[in-house]
Design a protein that fits this description.
alpha/beta
Length: about 260
C-alpha cells in the first residue's frame, strides 16, 4: 500500500504540472488556471487514504447524458456519455460518424438535455436539421403534413457552432462556449464533428497538433463538466482493422471509444 501511495502521489504531481503548463500555454482565461491552482495537490502521501468500498457513496443519476443506443448506455459504465469526460465515435471516411452523433444529439435534446453541436466537416445548420428530420421520419424531405415535426425540431435545446468562411480552432470553440454561457446556455453535452477538422498550430506536425487538441478537449470537458462526444476519423487497414488517424491520444484517454464499422 505504501508503494502504491508513493507512485500515486508522483502521478498526481505529474498530472497537475502538465495541466498547469497546458492551460498557461493555451492562452486560457485566468479563472480556468485558478481552478487548478486553488485545487492544489495532496501535501504528502499521508493524505492519500485508502478508499474503502463502504465509504463510497452511490453516484447520482445525472452523471451521464444517455445516447440513442441502449447498448452504449449499458456498456459505458455511466449510463451514456459521461459528464466531465470525452467519448469518441470513430469511423473511416463516410463510416457513419455524423449519422451516429446527430442521432445521439437528437435523442439527448428530446430528453431535455441542452446540446451544442460543433459542425466542422460535412454539415451546416440547415443540413443538421434535415438530418434530424430523417432520424425521426425515415424520409429525406418533408411534405406539407410535416410542419408539426419541423416545429418540434426547431424548439429543441440545440445550439450550433459553425464557421463557414474559415477553419475553426479549439480556441474558436471555447470562445463560442463562453458566449453561450453569458447568454444563459450551458450545454449538458457537446458534439464535435470531427477532431481532425479542427485547425491546429501549423508549426507542429499534424500528429502533434491533434494530440494537443485532444488534451485540450479532455481539459475542457473536465473543467466545464459537460459530456463531450468527439468524432474521430480512422484509417481502415487492409485486414479490415481500424487505426486512429493522428488522434491516438484522445482514444486512449476517452471514457468510451465506439468504433463504427459499415
Amino acid at each position: 500500500l505504501e508503494i502504491l501511495k508513493q507512485y500515486t502521489y508522483r502521478r498526481r504531481c505529474e498530472k497537475y504540472a502538465k495541466q498547469i503548463l497546458s492551460l498557461a500555454f493555451d492562452d486560457c482565461e485566468n479563472s480556468e488556471i485558478e481552478t487548478y491552482v486553488e485545487g492544489g495537490l495532496p501535501k504528502s502521501t499521508r493524505d492519500l487514504s485508502p478508499i474503502l468500498f463502504k465509504d463510497v457513496e452511490m453516484t447520482e443519476s445525472d452523471t451521464a447524458v444517455p445516447s440513442h443506443s441502449p447498448f452504449v448506455n449499458a456498456i459505458s459504465g455511466g449510463g451514456g456519455y459521461v459528464k466531465g469526460q470525452v467519448s469518441v465515435v470513430a469511423a473511416g471516411t463516410k463510416g457513419g460518424k455524423t449519422a451516429w452523433m446527430s442521432n445521439s444529439a437528437l435523442f439527448a435534446a428530446q430528453k431535455g438535455f441542452k446540446v451544442m453541436y460543433c459542425l466542422l466537416a460535412d454539415l451546416n445548420p440547415g443540413q443538421l436539421k434535415n438530418r434530424m428530420f430523417k432520424h425521426i421520419t425515415g424520409r429525406k424531405h418533408p411534405n406539407l403534413h410535416d410542419q408539426e415535426i419541423i416545429t418540434s425540431i426547431e424548439r429543441l435545446p440545440v445550439e450550433c457552432f459553425w464557421h463557414v468562411e474559415h477553419g475553426s480552432s479549439i480556441r474558436d470553440i471555447e470562445v463560442f462556449l463562453n458566449s453561450r454561457k453569458r447568454k444563459g446556455f450551458t450545454p449538458d453535452v457537446v458534439f464535435v464533428d470531427y477532431i481532425q477538422a479542427i485547425d491546429g498550430d501549423a508549426s507542429q506536425s499534424r500528429v502533434g497538433e491533434t494530440e494537443r487538441i485532444s488534451k485540450r478537449l479532455n481539459q475542457i470537458a473536465a473543467i466545464r463538466g459537460f459530456a463531450l462526444v468527439v468524432g474521430s476519423q480512422v484509417t481502415v487497414n487492409p485486414d479490415g482493422s481500424l487505426s486512429a488517424k493522428c488522434a491516438k491520444e484522445i482514444e486512449e484517454n476517452a471514457a468510451l471509444t465506439l468504433q463504427l464499422s459499415i
